[in-house]
């Protein structure tokens, strides 16, 4: 019997469990998806887990560690594992942890490795500031495999979106989904996003700007981009934004 998915969020697991998981990951098992969210791993648990993750025998494709008390130190271990075994992991969820700027930088440096196959990176609620966005922009413009990025519930503000948009607008950026819900974005941030869509219109499929403050003019700028025949945006989320007075007849939009 093969086990492809192991989901154990919120199971009150402690550090003495992680060595067992590491052993499984490094044992040529069939495990492809592991969810340990809302368990008290902390950095020590991640260090133990990363031993298995970095094994060449590990074929794990999805790892979810949301709300596990992970800091920069844990990111060091994860980055090391990705360096040792870069070709299998496709999705990494670190939502609601505290990686810090240096922890984020370490992880994103691994994503710039041409051998790294991470396509989905979820980091909402990680207390990230605008400084981090320059590192994300570097990854987006580096021919990385990243296709989905969730930075919701971080205090990026317009200055962070400006930095991020520099990468998003690069012709090398292949990002398809960008989630920036509840990031303190105003009309000014929409100007940068609209500019990025103008420079690189053919890849982004979904943009989530829910719970921001784009204003009517900011929304209008974004919708004007959708009139470009080359724009491939299919889903635009503006939940709880000032957009009720606007509508678009553009056929590409399936969710607004």
Automatic annotation (TrEMBL):
<dbReference type="InterPro" id="IPR001611">
    <property type="entry name" value="Leu-rich_rpt"/>
</dbReference>
<keyword id="KW-0677">Repeat</keyword>
<dbReference type="InterPro" id="IPR051261">
    <property type="entry name" value="NLR"/>
</dbReference>
<dbReference type="InterPro" id="IPR032675">
    <property type="entry name" value="LRR_dom_sf"/>
</dbReference>
<dbReference type="Pfam" id="PF13516">
    <property type="entry name" value="LRR_6"/>
</dbReference>
<protein>
    <recommendedName>
        <fullName>NACHT LRR and PYD domain-containing protein</fullName>
    </recommendedName>
</protein>
<keyword id="KW-0433">Leucine-rich repeat</keyword>
